[in-house]
Amino acid sequence: MDVVSMFQQGGPVMFILLAMSVLATAIILVKLFQFFSSGMRRSKFVESVMSALHSGQNSEALRQLEQQNSPVARVMESALRCGADPGMTAKDAEAEVSRVGSAQIRNLESWLRSLSAIAHLSPLLGLLGTVTGMIAAFMRLEEAGSRVDPSILSGGIWEALLTTAFGLTVAIPAMAAFYYLEGEVDNVRAAMKDATIRVMLYFGKSPSHVEGSDDDKLAEDETYGI
């Protein structure tokens, strides 16, 4: 049996799953291209920028950041500009850096929710196709009456199970890709927070919280709202 015949046997749910698989593949490829082209894994510039800052070369640090297209560089650039501005308080600087960081994270997370939805809905659609296929198979069995042919039931069952198999085939790689991409975003978020805190500490505008208190971990997690 060729692929076209298999889809025809599986019914309309197979074509819906096919469309979802194409969409999932497109999302994965686009996000991988976005992640790697943005240089998310490049972090060596952070130490170079901090060395320039500690040497008093703020303009050189800013120049290095402007040459990078990494989301971490964009947040560091915002932190550097806010930190160097004497007219901005620590609270104002935190708000501005949070705004820039949140925008960068939203850009990285775009379409990930759609990928997650495909991964969760595909098995359910496959199961729906299987259930409707089983109903149709038993209806044909009932119509056969006393002239029951076992091939009618067995044929209907394997045709119905096609949708479940295809649904899982779509869901498994989509879910794996979602967790991988989500993990990359979490790594960037952590790098953003670390770099931002280091820059703000240099300018003396770091978020304040009492060391050793029970709220230390909460304050750390909520730093800059990234």
Describe it.
The chain has 226 residues and is mostly helical. The protein has one domain (8-203). It contains nine helices and no strands. It has helices at residues 3-10, 12-37, 44-54, 58-66, 71-84, 90-109, 112-144, 150-203, 216-221. Helix 2 runs antiparallel to helix 7 and helix 2 runs parallel beside helix 8 (150-203). The longest helix is centred in the C-terminal third of the chain and has 54 residues, at 150-203. The radius of gyration is 27 Å and the shape is rod-shaped.
Primary descriptors:
226 residues, mainly alpha, 0% strand, rod-shaped
Structural class based on helices, strands and sheet pairing? mainly alpha
Order of helices and strands: HHHHHHHHH
Task: Show unreliable segments.
Answer: 209-220
Number of separate structural domains? 1
> Main sheet, how many strands, which sense, barrel?
none
Content of β-strand: under 5%
Q: Overall 3D geometry?
A: rod-shaped
The helix tally amounts to: 9
- Portion of residues in helices? over 70%
* Rg, Å, rounded: 27 Å
Q: Give the termini distance in whole angstroms.
A: 52 Å
The overall pLDDT average reads 87
Number of strands: 0
